[in-house]
Amino acid sequence: MVDQGSHRLALFGVARSLVIGVAIAATAAILSAGLVESFRIRHQEKRITVTGSATRRIRSDLIVWRATVRSQNPQLTEAYKKLAADVPTLVEFIKARGMTEQQVTVSAASITEVHPRTQEGIEQEALIAAYVAHQDVEVESADIAKVEQISREVTQLLDRGVYVQSSPPLYVYTKLAPLKIQMLAEASKDARLRAEQIAVNTNSALGKLITGRMGVMQVNQKFATDVSAEGNNDKSTLEKDVMAVVTAEFEVR
Prior knowledge:
six-stranded antiparallel beta sheet; Translation Initiation Factor IF3; 4 helices; 31% strand; alpha+beta; 38% helix; 3 domains; Alpha-Beta Plaits
């Protein structure tokens, strides 16, 4: 039979060896992690992130203006008949002031029903009090001043019994695509100049470009600096301010 005392000593030796082994492994892992972290600290890559921008004042080169002719009558046919007479009157008014056939677009006519209401304000959908016929006439031209004048003078047709509603003109810049390329180049140059200045002030040397991200273009009313994730595209004003933004990350030595 095996001596019980010897057996206990043997088990104790094995347990002690296991504990020592685990301790050595843990110590090695800690030292290894420390060496890795030390390596990372000593060899940490220095970077600088800057945002460059470029702004340009532009003037719209195209105007789009829309006027709506309306006619209301208890009889559907009469509403359409009046509309059919008034729309050509508007078109002739526009052409007489210098617009060509190609610059004028007439949309399809549409109809809206007017329902009477009770004294409590509830709409009676089963009854029709009148029909409203309406049709849009749109003008698109590079002669901005002339179309602006037409949009102001069109209310003269009210004296002739033509009910016309003038919408605010839309001002469009048609050369925005090539302008974006130029301005992104300017914004990138501005980003590098900013990064170089920061590097000089911190006694560092600017290295290579690591990453560069182009932001969306912002087209705002002049003197405005609004920013949106989708990009602004103002069409309400003749003159606009365009802003391009570039975020760049450089290596610093």
